[in-house]
């Protein structure tokens, strides 16, 4: 008995004409014509009944209701529709992150504005000329604080030190109007006076607390914007040619086969979408670190860093500092004179600089701690929900957009006909698509746009990690693409590769599962082995065929 090679039977099954039902009569194409017209295409040339499908290049070549032109139009339509699904899903995430940023930004700016307004309202009546002749000093302080929060390249500690120095110079002159004090004398005065803490402990205490609060606040606000921007840019990545074919086969080939009512198999849909979004899934690790880092900083903002109290009471701390200077005026002046000499007596005479009362000044600050607590709770809930966005996206698209069948359905569209889908579901990420049965994915060529966004996530997570322990870092606009190829080589290890031990984003450096394109070492060896494997396969097939012919 002669046994045919198994490959022959596979070819027979693959190319055998198949129909959606058991009847021999050509079925009507009314449903496909209706769908095709609804998509905006002309019905001219659309078959009224099934035709032979040898011309098809994507769908199975059985009896069909689709011409070559229809198949091409459906393919283009499936690409635009799938990309629209991606953008719609991305817009939902963007809206969530943008709303969180807007809420916190509004709260923080309002906190700063109220402190500044309270200062302007109270200081004239309390300090008189001490305030009215130095309004610009106070305005400049709040201006610098806002610029820092908006990510300008400002050293916050230096800005605060400059404020106290300028304020001391102005107040020293006003508190000693009987003397002619030159700029050179003021320089000497500042050096000697600082040793004796003219403002008490307020400058040091405020610098420590305000710096931590501002670093946390601006990193927190920027983190939401970076996350939103990453989603926007990744959602705009176009589908590959192989992905477009797979999406077409998933979404429209059942219509061409006369199976419009048959939904795609769930696992079939997952393999198609996971193959198409393989690069996007590689965002998962850094994305989760960003979400965790934002949650960690949120806890600091509403906890140890006490943003509500620190920012909302800046004006009160300044008033406390001025009162300290007034109370210690004679002692400070005496020590300055000892170190710098006695200045000349002013010919203008003295003024009534001490009309306003001395002593402790009591200012009230309205607490908005409850509002901050609610903001943080809401943000943490949303951030937790978004952690798995990139790896749950395929199942979300399949269930809500593609309308795939249930997992147990064995009468669904499996890419060839109505039945069950047997291949296993692939893992997440580019490296796991090497054996994807539905989408041909080149795992050696990662998408550069997405690699750039992975680096942006790493950089922002590093900043949040620093903010979490009170360290400041240089802030640049992370919404712009980094220079270079985007492969990550342009990012220094001390910025992107390291995780601070106290940061919520702490982790050990990972080995990237995606082979590099350098061609060196193990990766290079594996990429060069592909042609050899193909050659061996062809030789094996030839030997089997020869053995069959010689029998």
TrEMBL record:
Signal peptide: 1-20
Cellular compartments annotated: Cell membrane; Secreted, Extracellular space
Biological process, per Gene Ontology: cell migration; negative regulation of fibroblast growth factor receptor signaling pathway; regulation of protein localization to membrane
InterPro entries: Glypican, Glypican_CS
Keyword Phosphoprotein: no
Domain of life assignment: Eukaryota
Chief place where the protein resides: membrane
Keywords, alphabetical: Cell membrane, Disulfide bond, Glycoprotein, GPI-anchor, Heparan sulfate, Lipoprotein, Membrane, Proteoglycan, Secreted, Signal
Low complexity: compositionally biased ranges: 481-494
Membrane topology category: Lipid-anchor; GPI-anchor
Residue stretches of biased makeup (Polar residues): 502-515
Molecular functions (GO terms): fibroblast growth factor binding
Region entry Disordered, spans: 475-526
GO CC annotations, alphabetized: cell surface; extracellular region; plasma membrane; side of membrane; synapse
Role this protein plays: Cell surface proteoglycan.
Family, as annotated: Belongs to the glypican family.
Protein name as catalogued: Glypican-1
The species this protein was found in: Gymnorhina tibicen
Gene: Gpc1
């Amino acid at each position: 008995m002669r046994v045919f090679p198994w490959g022959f039977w596979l070819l027979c099954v693959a190319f055998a004409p198949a129909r959606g039902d058991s009847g021999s009569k050509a079925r009507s194409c009314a449903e496909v014509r209706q769908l095709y017209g609804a998509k905006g295409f002309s019905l001219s040339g659309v078959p009224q009944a099934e035709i032979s499908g040898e011309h098809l290049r994507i769908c199975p070549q059985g009896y069909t209701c689709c011409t070559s032109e229809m198949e091409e139009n459906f393919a283009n339509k499936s690409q635009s529709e799938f990309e629209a699904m991606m953008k719609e899903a991305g817009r939902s995430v963007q809206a969530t992150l943008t709303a969180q940023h807007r809420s916190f930004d509004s709260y923080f700016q309002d906190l700063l504005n109220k402190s500044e307004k309270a200062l302007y309202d109270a200081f004239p009546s309390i300090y008189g000329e001490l305030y009215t002749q130095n309004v610009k000093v106070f305005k400049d302080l709040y201006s610098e604080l806002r610029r820092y929060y908006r990510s300008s390249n400002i050293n916050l500690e230096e800005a605060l030190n400059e404020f106290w120095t300028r304020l001391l110079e102005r107040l020293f002159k006003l508190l000693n109007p009987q003397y002619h004090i030159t700029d050179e004398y003021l320089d000497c005065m500042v050096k000697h006076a600082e040793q004796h803490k003219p403002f008490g402990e307020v400058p040091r205490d405020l610098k420590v607390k305000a710096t931590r609060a501002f670093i946390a606040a601006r990193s927190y606000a920027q983190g939401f914007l970076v996350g939103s921007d990453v989603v926007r840019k990744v959602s705009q990545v176009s589908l590959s040619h192989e992905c477009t074919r797979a999406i077409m086969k998933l979404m429209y080939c059942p219509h061409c086969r006369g199976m419009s009512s048959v939904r795609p198999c769930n696992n079939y849909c997952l393999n198609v979408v996971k193959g198409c979004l393989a690069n996007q899934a590689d965002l998962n690790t850094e994305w989760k670190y960003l979400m965790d880092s934002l949650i960690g900083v949120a806890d600091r903002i509403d906890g140890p860093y006490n943003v509500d109290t620190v920012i909302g009471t800046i004006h009160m701390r300044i008033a406390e500092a001025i009162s300290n200077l007034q109370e210690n005026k004679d002692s400070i002046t005496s020590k300055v004179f000892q170190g710098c000499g006695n200045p000349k007596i002013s010919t203008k005479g003295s003024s009534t600089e001490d009309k306003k009362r001395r002593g402790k000044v009591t200012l009230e600050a309205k607490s908005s701690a409850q509002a901050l607590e609610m903001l943080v709770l809401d943000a943490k809930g949303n951030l937790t929900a978004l952690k798995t966005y990139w790896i749950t996206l395929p199942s979300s698209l399949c269930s809500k957009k593609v309308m795939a069948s249930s997992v147990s359905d064995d009468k669904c569209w499996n890419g060839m006909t109505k039945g069950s889908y047997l291949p296993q579901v692939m893992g997440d990420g580019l490296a796991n698509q090497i054996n994807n049965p539905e989408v041909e994915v080149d795992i050696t060529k990662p998408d550069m746009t997405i690699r750039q966004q992975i680096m942006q996530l790493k950089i922002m997570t590093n900043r949040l990690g620093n903010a979490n322990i009170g360290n400041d870092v240089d802030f640049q606009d992370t919404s712009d693409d980094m220079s270079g190829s985007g492969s990550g080589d342009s990012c220094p290890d001390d910025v992107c590769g390291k995780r601070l031990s106290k940061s919520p984003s702490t982790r050990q450096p990972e080995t990237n599962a995606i082979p590099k394109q350098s061609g060196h070492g193990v990766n290079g060896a594996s990429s060069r082995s592909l042609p050899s494997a193909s050659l061996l396969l062809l030789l094996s097939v030839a030997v089997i065929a020869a053995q069959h012919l010689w029998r």
